[in-house]
Amino acid sequence: MEKKVQEHDEKFKEVDLELESHREQLLQLKQNDEKFQQDVSLLKTDLAKLQSGQSSLELTVMKGNESTRDLITENKVITNRLLDHVIGKDAQDHQSDIDTRKQKWEIIGKISVAVASGSGVLYLIVQAYLP
Predict the structure, then answer these.
(1) pLDDT tens digit sequence for 54-86
(2) What is the pLDDT of residues 6-45, one digit of tens each?
(3) What is the 3-state secondary structure (H, E, C) of the chain?
């Protein structure tokens, strides 16, 4: 019987050692779980900050795009006004050239008529005095 008691004592010691080993493992697992939960909490906080930053960035980009669109629109208006001015100036210059040519031809025509009619009168005068 004493042998059996010793065997049981040894088995109890083995079980106690295993139990102690399991306790240490459980404590280690608990510590790892707590660290994991802290890491998850930090990740959630970082993710929330990242989402907030992304929203802020999107808003900034949208405002920048709106500003760029306004500048492009303003540039188009100015460019169109400039083109209208240049085209209008070209049309005025062209009309001025046409008017100048008309005036030149009118003057040439008047001179031609004057020369022709003056020559005819001069011819008649010369014919009258020459036998």
Answers:
(1) 888 888 888 878 888 888 888 888 888 888 877
(2) 888 888 888 888 889 899 999 999 999 999 999 999 999 9
(3) CHHHHHHHHHHHHHHHHHHHHHHHHHHHHHHHHHHHHHHHHHHHHHHHHHHHHHHHHHHHHHHHHHHHHHHHHHHHHHHHHHHHHHHHHHHHHHHHHHHHHHHHHHHHHHHHHHHHHHHHHHHHHHHHHCC
pTM of the model: 0.42
Report the distance separating Cα 56 and Cα 92, nearest Å. Answer: 54
∠ Cα 50 56 61 (to 5°) = 120
